[in-house]
Design goal:
Layout: E1 4-10, E2 18-24, E3 29-36, E4 40-42, E5 48-51, E6 57-59, E7 64-66, E8 72-74, E9 77-82, E10 90-95, E11 100-101, E12 107-108, E13 111-115, E14 118-122, E15 126-131, E16 136-142, E17 160-165, E18 168-173, E19 177-182, E20 188-193, E21 204-207, E22 212-217, E23 220-225, E24 230-236, E25 243-250, E26 256-263, E27 272-277, E28 282-288, E29 301-302, E30 306-310, E31 316-320, H1 321-324
Antiparallel strand pairs: 1-2, 2-3, 4-5, 5-6, 6-7, 8-9, 9-10, 10-11, 10-12, 13-14, 14-15, 15-16, 17-18, 18-19, 19-20, 21-22, 22-23, 23-24, 25-26, 26-27, 27-28, 29-30, 30-31
Length: 325
């Protein structure tokens, strides 16, 4: 059972100060709060806080600061930038809490996590696959040649690194193509094209457990089989109003997709959040702003009991799943 949640609250009387709050769901009260003098955000590893603007790190469990300054932390691995000039930087990975450097060579921006021990270095010139457990670059390929559609503003020719399935790395390109690469040597094994592959990167979810890619975008819900390399399900949802998913998360063996969306709005601002049932093919729960301009810039968070989302006004909205689905 989930007993505690952590969240932050901006202190209205102070421009920079934020309060870290630990809330006990059983006792229904705050059990601990800490005030910090500068802004912070949660990292993808919930054990750490990342402070702006100097990227210093606070270890929540041990209540201590870490010596090095990290730009992000995932699975106890942090990314450090150096020689930052506002546009370019050099990057490396460090293992926490030891603060041990993983790669012998610093790489140009940008490094990000794919899954498990695999990370990548995606630059204007090339793409590298990194094995953090071995501390090695496994292979390097040149950036794929693409015909960029109007309005595409991605940083490189790779729109999204989807994930790894059965020793194949799947990449989404901006010109309606998927590239399937051998995870061991980077050889292109398949080049696939379909009109649905143009979908916004936030509207896809790569499910390596089920071997599918789920697409939820505008009025479309579809499943693409990674084994058969074809769409096995396509459904027009028939939603009459404007409905554009801006972020989505799903979990293995979970029939629900949890999303933020742009609803009845011509801008790109997320003003709704909800739950989509992939079996019923319908939205089974949807919430909207609880405060004027309380938009949803962050993805919802989900576990076996709670569905939560933070709005732009600092309101943490908490739902018990048993109450809404």
């Amino acid at each position: 059972m989930i007993n505690h949640i952590l969240f932050y609250k901006e202190l209205s009387n102070y421009k920079q100060k934020k309060k870290l709050v630990e809330y006990d769901l059983i006792l229904n009260k705050v059990v601990q709060s800490l005030i910090f003098e500068i802004n912070f955000s949660f990292t993808e590893n919930s054990n750490y806080l990342l402070f702006d603007p100097n990227n210093s790190v606070y270890d929540i469990n041990n209540k201590t600061y870490i010596n090095k300054c990290f730009n992000s932390i995932i699975n106890n691995i942090g990314i450090i930038y150096k020689d930052w000039n506002g546009v370019n930087s050099l990057n490396n990975l460090f293992l926490l809490p030891e603060e041990k450097q993983i790669l012998s060579k610093w790489l140009p921006n940008r490094i990000f996590h794919i899954q498990d021990q695999y990370w990548c270095n995606d630059t204007d010139e090339d793409f590298k696959l990194i094995d953090a457990d071995r501390g090695e670059i496994l292979w390097t390929i040149l950036q794929p040649k693409v015909e960029k559609p109007y309005g595409y503003n991605g940083l490189t020719n790779i729109k999204k690194v989807l994930g790894i399935y059965k020793e194949n790395l799947w990449l989404q390109l901006p010109d309606s193509r998927f590239l399937v690469l051998d995870v061991h040597d980077g050889t292109i094994k398949h080049e696939l094209k379909h009109d649905y592959f143009i979908v916004h990167e936030k509207g896809t979810f790569f499910d390596r457990e089920e071997g599918i890619i789920q697409v939820l975008y505008y009025n479309l819900y579809a499943k693409y089989s990674l084994d058969f390399m074809e769409f096995v399900e396509e459904v027009d949802l028939g939603i009459p109003e404007i409905f554009q998913v801006t972020s989505m998360i799903s979990r293995p063996k979970d029939k629900y997709i949890y999303y933020t969306a742009k609803l009845n709005d011509v801008s790109m601002i997320s003003n709704a959040y909800g739950i989509f049932d992939t079996e019923k093919k319908e939205v089974v729960f949807q919430g909207e702003e609880i405060e004027v301009d309380g938009h949803f810039y962050k993805e919802p968070q989900i576990n076996d009991e709670l569905f939560t989302i933070l709005d732009s006004k600092g309101n943490l909205i908490i739902h018990r799943l048993e109450d809404i689905i």
